[in-house]
TrEMBL record:
Pfam families with a match to the protein in the record: TraB_PrgY_gumN
Source organism phylogeny: Bacteria, Pseudomonadati, Bacteroidota, Flavobacteriia, Flavobacteriales
Name recorded for this polypeptide: TraB family protein
Species for this entry: Flavobacterium aquaticum
Taxonomy, superkingdom: Bacteria
Entry-linked InterPro entries: TraB/PrgY/GumN_fam (IPR002816), YbaP-like (IPR047111)
């Protein structure tokens, strides 16, 4: 009988531990000796509607500083990004691809960016893909991070980053250049059609505040950059952020805005903070 109850307890605690998170983009951090509440918010980096709802605006008002993935207020950020956009060890796109695929990419970039692939020969292929993001939208490009920064500036508060530009850009040195090049070719061959469908689907999931759904979409994607590299893209970075978040929330009430995919899952920021003893609850 004792073994039965131990087994039952293990099953119940296991189920509660793996329980899916509620549909919410905004989460309140409290408990574990904190003197003030902080907030965690899931962003989307590219969207048609970056409007912040009433709860989010109130959370920004009740906190004293903003932390994003990067300090996007840093004036030298673009210069720093340029420094890390190139592939290491002299690798070239023209050598990663066969002649036919390189020609396909070249023609595609000329059509969509009025520039030849030869101009980007040393760039990490994923960086080229990010330059095409505005073309994947059927609306003017908007950024949630920009909206968060705008409100923060109006409140005369500071913007900080959980990681450096170097940290973030080096992620794409840890993802195979060959896979990045392969995905760029797929984008070129589809003429952005497939990417537009996928981005539209992601924006709909985001709009429904389904952070678990966003993580699942990444996991199920046939884009190998996202589906095969979640440790590099998400989990490792989440773990690196936790000590910074904890140190920061002990000091002053803070609003954290990170990509919504970072929030969900067993190795997402919400459950990692809960494992450290903090209460992290959805704000409805």
């Amino acid at each position: 009988m004792k073994k039965f109850f131990i087994s039952l307890l293990t099953l119940v605690t296991g189920l509660s531990f793996s329980q899916e998170l509620e549909k919410s983009l905004l989460w309140k951090i409290s408990g574990n000796g904190l003197k003030h509440e902080s907030y965690l918010f899931g962003t989307i980096h590219i969207t048609c509607d970056a409007t912040l709802d009433e709860n989010t605006l109130k959370a920004l008002e009740n906190t004293k500083q903003l932390y994003l993935e990067l300090d996007m207020d840093e004036k030298s950020m673009q210069m720093q990004m340029m420094k890390y956009m190139m592939m290491k060890d002299g690798v070239k796109l023209s050598t990663l691809l066969n002649a036919d695929d390189f020609k396909t990419v070249d023609e595609f970039l000329k059509k969509n960016m009025n520039m030849s692939a030869k101009m980007f020969d040393s760039f990490k292929p994923f960086m080229i893909t990010t330059m095409l993001y505005p073309k994947m939208l059927d609306c003017p490009f908007q950024s949630v991070e920009s909206e968060l920064m705008k409100v923060t500036k109006e409140q005369n508060e500071e913007v900080f980053g959980l990681e450096t530009v170097e940290d973030q850009m080096k992620v794409f040195d840890n993802i195979s250049y060959e896979i990045q090049a392969e995905e760029l070719v797929k984008t070129a061959k589809s003429g952005l059609d497939k990417d537009k469908v996928e981005l539209a689907k992601m924006m709909e999931i985001y709009k429904s505040k389904d952070i678990e759904g966003m993580l699942k979409m990444m996991d199920d994607s046939d884009n190998k950059i996202t589906s095969e590299n979640q440790d590099v893209l998400l989990n490792n970075r989440n773990k690196n952020w936790i000590p910074i978040i904890i140190k920061t929330i002990k000091d002053k009430p803070t609003f954290f805005g990170v990509g919504a995919g970072h929030l969900a899952g067993e190795e997402g920021v919400i459950k990692l903070l809960r494992k450290q003893g903090y209460k992290v609850e959805a704000v409805k």
